Amino acid sequence: MAVLNDAKKAVALVRKAVDARRAHREVRRTLAAAGPLPAGRFRVAVYFADGDVNMYQMRQWYRPLQRLAETWPVVVMSRQATGARALLADGALPVAFVPEVRSIEAFLREQDIRVVLYVNQNTRNFQMFRYGRRWHVFINHGESDKMYMTTNQFKAYDYALIAGQAARQRLERALWDADLDRRTIEIGRPQADHFAEGIALAADDRTVVLYAPTWEGDRAQAAYGSIRSHGEALVAALLADPRFRLVYRPHPRSGVVDPEYGEANVRIVRAIEAANAEDPAAGHVYDDGPDLGWQLAAADVAVVDISAMVYDRLATGRPMLITRPVSAEAEVDTAGYLGDCEWLDGAEAARIVDAVDRLAGDPDASARLESWVRHYFGDTSPGAPSARFHAAIETLMERWEDWAARSSS
Question: Could you write out the three-class secondary structure of the chain?
Fold first, then answer.
């Protein structure tokens, strides 16, 4: 079995290398056909060092960045060919392909980049940090109480744009000697201003349940995924009840570490296909598309794992259940919302219909939810998060001008 697994890994690595070379050629051709980016146009860049497997981290920022670009034109600096290929195919933002350090330097000579935004903690971010006289700003790819959100890597950035008071308190507990008052700026969740765009579900009396599990994780402490422990049972129960419409959106990395987790994901997708074939009016959805947000706005109830999806849903102020990890080693920060949320244990997954009905008729749960929404995101009224995001960038531009003036005097 070990020899077979090693052989599969070797084949996968070869295929990955071949695809990377192909992507490199395709990106070069596409960019050559489009012509060079206008020199001196951009002052805001998003640095993205990942390939296409982590494009979900970029895509959730498209709409807020497009809105920002109306004031401050935004370009994506892409390091990997498969990531650049996906970015170019999406066409949401201008792309600079900078696979080598010398191409970064050439790009920076052509553009007056003053603010560099980072959506993740890729180790190659360090290669960009070497360039001073610009702000390096961590914007993350979601708000959550996972261990990822309190890493000491926050200190590597000049600034971090955070969601609200919960994020600030979380960092205060975890980081020593961090100047959070100056180096963090609260912006809420600007993506939430765009969540309702693109909803395309049938308008009927079915209760829409979003099930959005995360991946299995790469270590026991981060094993939050529920597809194997909860997923198949709760999906079967919802598909069997004609009162419900299921929207299933698994994490795009589901099964990359644990093949059995990936196989369970495939079985769920097939169950949805079979249910729709039996009753086309059911309209159950398996969603693996690039757009994230409409699912959160469309769902009457959401079932999510410990992940950024908890907090994206929280930003809508609507009911949800959190799957309790079955791994005893999984780290759960109960100092915040997870200490007061509505849990769904693995043993209760088959009784998901009862759990949804209970939640819908619980006014105390609604009141608790409203309080936590304010704590995590502040003002969530339409347009408020976007306004704070734009104000944060404006503040950083003003600070850049101030430091540039000091340096030249």
Answer: CHHHHHHHHHHHHHHHHHHHHHHHHHHHHHHHHHCCCCCCCCCEEEEECCCHHHHHHHHCCHHHHHHHCCCCCEEEEECCHHHHHHHHHHCCCCEEECCCHHHHHHHHHHCCCCEEEECCCCCCHHHHHCCCCCEEEECCCCCCCCHHHHCHHHHHCCEEEECCHHHHHHHHHHCCCCCHHHHEEECCCHHHHHCCCCCCCCCCCCEEEEEECCCCCCCHHHCCCCHHHHHHHHHHHHHHCCCEEEEECCCCCCCCCCHHHHHHHHHHHHHHHHHHHHCHHHCCEECCCCCCCHHHHHCCEEEECCCHHHHHHHCCCCCEEEECCCCCCCCCCCCCHHHCCCEECHHHHHHHHHHHHHHHCCHHHHHHHHHHHHHHHCCCCCCHHHHHHHHHHHHHHHHHHHHHHHHHC
